[in-house]
Specification:
Bound molecules: zinc ion
Order of helices and strands: HHHEEHEEEEEEEEEEH
Radius of gyration: 46 Å
Distance between the termini: 98 Å
Number of strands: 12
Low-confidence stretches: 14-21, 23-46
């Protein structure tokens, strides 16, 4: 309050009253924050003067100081707007980064799903030597319940897709066999194996080696007998070539 009256003995009592009124006015100004700003500026304190008109004290603020206040207010406004803009931009960037991460995660899951769903032929670089439903006295049903892949004994046999092993061991006419419940709920069977490389309950991935081909069971020579079934049991066979084709494998 540098611009208030200095107390002195030359004052008349009447002036003191007006001072009180003026002080009330200054107090009201203080709530606006302007006085606080003025008081905080040393330059302003020097610039202020109180003219004693003999009636009402007048506070004068030079144009220079007024400009300084305007410039300060303007600078604060600009800074506040800039900060708000920067915060908004940072928020947008963070959201975009989050979206990007989510898109990458989705793509990775999709790639993994495709990899797990991708099917392969049970014997690589082979061919079907005996077709589905071919008739022969060799089979008890009188017709072939699967397809035979040409394969020398000891050839790697692959799970055609991902699934869980539900049966392994001796399968009578099928010799050593493996049955897998596929991820799509169907079953595949692999027969006449010379070696079984998986156990019941084991999860297998598409293309994973599950055993070696052979000539066990009712055969005239080594090959892989392959079936697609709706259940793990004999007699629920469906066309294995059509099944493989549904999963993108042409044999
Ligand atoms: Zn067969």
């Amino acid at each position: 309050m540098a611009f208030m009256y200095a107390t002195g003995k030359h004052r008349k009592p009447g002036r003191v009253k007006r001072t009180t009124v003026q002080a009330a006015g200054v107090a009201a100004l203080t709530t606006t924050g302007v006085v606080g700003t003025l008081a905080a500026s040393p330059a302003l304190a020097a610039d202020n003067s109180v003219e004693d008109t003999g009636l009402t004290p007048v506070i004068t603020v030079s144009d220079t100081v007024a400009e300084q206040i305007d410039a300060q207010a303007e600078a604060q406004l600009v800074a506040a707007r800039q900060k708000a803009a920067e915060e908004a931009a940072a928020k947008v960037a963070a959201e975009e980064a989050k979206k990007e991460r989510e898109a990458q995660a989705r793509a990775a899951r999709e790639a993994e799903r495709k990899r797990l769903n991708a099917f392969v032929a049970p014997i690589a670089h082979s061919y079907v030597s005996t077709g589905y439903k071919a008739s022969s006295s060799l089979w008890s049903s009188g017709s072939h319940t699967g397809i035979d892949f040409h394969a020398a004994s000891g050839t790697s046999v692959h799970a055609v897709g991902s699934g869980t092993v539900v049966s392994t061991g001796w399968g009578g006419a099928y010799g050593n066999q493996i049955v897998i419940r596929m991820a799509d709920g169907m079953y595949t069977q692999y027969g006449h194996l010379s070696s079984i490389g998986v156990v019941v309950g084991q999860k297998v991935l598409s293309g994973q080696q599950i055993g070696l081909s052979g000539a066990t069971g009712n055969v005239t020579g080594p090959h892989l007998h392959f079936e697609a079934r709706t259940t793990p049991e004999y007699g629920s066979d469906v066309d294995p070539i059509a099944y493989l084709r549904q999963h993108g494998v042409n044999v």
